[in-house]
Write a structure and sequence with these properties.
about 425 residues; mainly alpha; Growth Hormone, Chain: A; 18 helices; globular
Length: about 425
């Protein structure tokens, strides 16, 4: 361990490489929204809108279902080995998707991608808790998520560009998989599960982080106790419900907005990809602003209000933006409304995720997995809900879709109000 009196800055390196992980995570996650509407994909497959909805939603179903087991594995065996394994697996499954020749194969491949990616953000939450001081965790959460949003922002354009220039959709997935394997190697080389394990961290940085002593890993018996605490925690249930409702509203942007722009607004594939890129780019700004907003509010108003204020205010603005969409004739103005949704969703996320570290303690990854599980059940449900709303709404289907999305954000903004980040899930956590 480095003995210098000045604090080392290894924590910044940890956040940087975790951002890189999040980049490829979102690239692999969002690319299918563009692939399913490409000419080369539709030349290979004759799928109904419902089948496409199942393919897009399949990822989120298993991603949600495996959040808690994957999070616990990281709490038990360490963030470094487990997240490296997760990156390798989802990269291989992404590449495998490019070899599929039928609906069943596509569905299975996306289900497996969801399983492998499940532990990514819960493990990131645990890393942030161990490596970052309390009043900097929301900013760090925002930076890691920024890496994800950068990947998501570039995904539409990069995916379409690769499809157009390489001649088919399959090669784009093979390239994504290869890049993921490279990032897994970088992550393994640079990251350690805790500051105490890193040979370059000195005592001054440990003191700055607030980790004077190493923590024991979460045992299987303690996991059972933690899971019971999850079911009894009003705050955690409120956080989980808010994430579920929020992801129904936000999930429309990455699953059905590309198709909506092409089929309902008459936008070309490449132009639609650019529009979605602009929408998601605003989310990047939201992640940065949301992290600083939450950490400022925490220092100014205390932990409880400091977490609640960014969550609730952001979600009400998202609702207002979606309510405006049915009455917009200009495609670019509609894209602007969706950009507001993207920005404000991501403004709330650093607070939502920092909350998991606040209450989770040594079970942060498992707690993060619990909240993320419900959030992604919402994303999966949303991918299936949109075509159903369009069908039952008839000529007013688009209005019904946007009003429903607005309603999910209104409920989310109300549900977060009883949350209390000061109440720990495990009695022996500091």
């Amino acid at each position: 361990m480095n003995a210098s009196n000045a604090p080392t800055a290894i924590r910044h390196r940890i956040i940087g490489v975790t951002m890189l992980m999040a980049f490829i995570l979102y690239l692999d996650r969002i690319c299918m929204g563009e692939i399913v509407k490409s000419v080369s994909f539709n030349d290979d497959f004759d799928l109904t809108p419902e089948q496409i909805g199942h393919i897009l939603g399949a990822f989120f179903f298993t991603y949600a279902l495996f959040q808690v087991p994957a999070g616990w594995a990281s709490d038990r065996f360490g963030a470094r080995p487990m997240l490296t394994i997760y990156i390798v697996l989802w990269s291989l499954f992404t590449a495998m998707t490019g070899f599929m020749t039928g609906f069943a194969g596509l569905l299975i491949a996306r289900l497996l991608c969801g399983v492998a990616e499940a532990g990514a953000f819960p493990t990131s939450m645990a890393l942030i808790r161990k490596w970052i001081p309390l009043t900097g965790r929301a900013t760090a959460s925002g930076m890691v998520s920024l890496g994800g949003r950068l990947g998501g922002t570039l995904a539409p354009f990069l995916t379409i560009w690769m499809i157009v220039n390489l001649g088919n959709w399959r090669a784009s997935l093979w390239i994504d998989g290869a890049v993921g394997l490279l990032i897994a190697f970088i992550f393994w080389r640079l990251v350690r599960s805790s500051p105490h394990e890193h040979p370059q961290v000195n005592a001054a940085e440990l003191a700055l982080i607030g980790r004077p002593q190493a923590e024991k890993p979460l045992s299987g018996r303690e996991l059972k106790s933690a899971l019971w605490s999850f079911t009894k925690s009003r705050s955690l249930w409120c956080n989980s419900a808010a994430q579920m409702l929020q992801n129904i509203g936000w999930g429309f942007l990455i699953t059905w907005l590309p198709t909506y722009l092409v089929t309902e607004r008459g936008v070309g594939e490449i132009e639609g990809g650019k529009m979605l890129t602009y929408v998601l780019a605003f989310g990047m700004a939201g992640q940065i602003a949301g992290g600083y907003y939450c950490d400022w509010a925490t220092r100014r108003f205390g932990l409880r209000i400091g977490r609640l204020l960014p969550m609730s205010s952001s979600m009400f603005v998202c609702a207002a933006a979606y309510l405006f969409c049915p009455f917009v004739d200009s495609t670019w103005l509609l894209v602007g409304c969706c950009a507001v949704v993207s920005f404000c969703t991501d403004l709330a996320n650093p607070a939502l995720w920092a909350f998991m570290g606040d209450v989770g303690g040594r079970a942060t990854a498992a707690a993060g997995g619990w909240g993320n599980m419900w959030g992604n059940f919402g994303a999966s449900a949303g991918a299936l809900l949109i075509p159903w709303l369009m069908k039952i709404g008839g000529g007013d289907g688009k209005t019904l879709v946007f009003f429903t999305l607005a309603g999910t954000f209104i409920l989310a903004g109300l549900i977060v109000l009883p949350m209390d980040a000061t109440k720990k899930l495990l009695a022996d956590d500091n």
